Amino acid sequence: MHRLWIGSALILGLIGIGIGSYLFFFSSGSGSLPDGVTRGGQSIASLETTNAADRPEKTFALTAEEKEWTIEEKESVEAWTYNGTVPGQELRVEQGDFVQVDLTNNLDVPVTIHWHGVNLANNMDGVPGLTQDAVQPGESFTYKFVAEDAGTYWYHSHQHSSKQVDKGLYGPLVIEDPEENGDYDVEETLMLDEWPVHQAKDGPASRQGMMESRRSGDGEADTKDLYDTFTVNGKAGEAIDPLEMEQGETARLRLVNAGFQQHQLAFPEGSAEVIAVDGEKTSSSGDSSANIVEIAPGERIDVAYTKQDQTPVFLGEPGDNEKARDMRIPVLPEGTSRSEAAMASPETETTARGADQSTDTILFDQVPEPDVSYTMDLSMGMDMGGGGMSFQINGRTFPDTPPIQVQDGDIVKVEIENNGSMNHPMHLHGHDFQIQSKDGTTLEQPGVKDLVHVKPGESYTIYFEANNQGEWLFHCHDNNHAELGMSTIVDYDSVYSPYDLGGDADNHPS
């Protein structure tokens, strides 16, 4: 189970806010509030700064800057980067370290850093307009947190994410478990993404793609319409660095989907085992072997891959279309070349999804009695103001979506239903949740995650404990969908946020 850093101070909050007053609060700053609505508790601005105490310290500097980035030979894009590369610098620390990251913004737009999957103090979560003001051009901000839980994580801007993450503002964060050092012959972090290299991305989603999704039943159709090139660690096709492995060696592959489209990686039959999802070790009693690993936007899946022979092979996206051919990782024993490698094509395809994995640690031994119950109806609709499509939670778009209102210590039950025609990877900040049932059937071996990929017609029931006070985003991690409204807030009743959406800082959390 993750051990949350909470500290002695209370963090962020609102009291008794309905849908209308919720919108008013985030647009009104320090002005008056509607009758009956008050600001209680402690402002995030007065919180104590996290300190290192007697923990080992790891310090990093990240600079947001523009860079022409080469994706493959003769193909480049104007990227926004941390420290000039896509992905940004890998931040590798050990469990228990005190981590300090100094962000400097050399772009001409505001940015932030969100520590995806890391349970930390709310004022370090990096969500503009909710937990901080966005970092302005030429300014800096320092993030501080304790690396409590070993696993695979990542960082990315949460300011106008549908554009900034799309343009490359992301990187990997690995929190090592010292007891696992030396368990694998090879270790590699592989960040998957997609780019509009040969076309212009016109807005966060296309109406044509949405309509195609409805007609075809393909929950990815809208996102597929936006991108023409797949990448691994910022490179495509022959520019992807090979894995150098010999027969009998085992690699830990830390897969991170930084894009907005689900991806699949095919492995030779019997060579791969899912060993962790969203930073949680998978249960040895569950079926964690697969030929194809499917990874949703925002999700992290760790795979132990064993090289079965000396034959060079490609691991990558199944299929033979141009985009699939972009995302192929060569595995080359000494003395072999990329030109000799063939795509892994298992005879019998078994697909592993993150949401289907049981984990060693669970939050609740039995189905708990909830203090708070919330139904999250995911759907599409029309944006009456803009005249286009929108993505809704309970018939509303952010910031007008109804919040999940909790008190510290509450057990929270959320029933998530996808009544639309597109996939929605729903990610909760600041907490882990237990997936207790799928499509109305209780799982015998539940799993703990911070993201659940809900496909059209699917439903999940999740539980979590409200044990990390603050104002926490719960949103679709296809950030194109979040941009068009699919976000809400887990709102603790004893704390409040002094920050505004929009305003002088141009805070834009979607």
Structure write-up:
With 510 residues, this protein is mainly beta. It has three domains: 19-35 and 362-496, Cupredoxins -  blue copper proteins (Immunoglobulin-like); 57-183, Immunoglobulin-like (Sandwich); 189-356, Immunoglobulin-like (Sandwich), CATH 2.60.40.420. Helices cover 7% and strands 37% of the residues. The chain has helices spanning 19-28, 161-164, 207-216, 221-224, 322-326, 479-483, and strands spanning 42-43, 57-72, 75-82, 91-94, 98-105, 114-116, 140-146, 151-156, 170-176, 186-195, 229-232, 250-257, 263-266, 272-277, 280-281, 292-295, 300-306, 313-316, 328-331, 342-343, 351-353, 372-382, 389-393, 404-406, 411-418, 424-428, 433-438, 441-449, 451-454, 459-465, 471-476, 487-492, 495-496. Strand 14 (272-277) and strand 15 (280-281) form a beta hairpin. The longest helix has 10 residues, at 19-28. It holds the Pfam family Cu-oxidase. Its EC number is 1.7.2.1. Belongs to the multicopper oxidase family. Residues 347-356 have a biased composition (Polar residues).
Notable characteristics:
Immunoglobulin-like, mainly beta, single chain, globular, 3 domains, about 500 residues, about 35% strand, about 5% helix
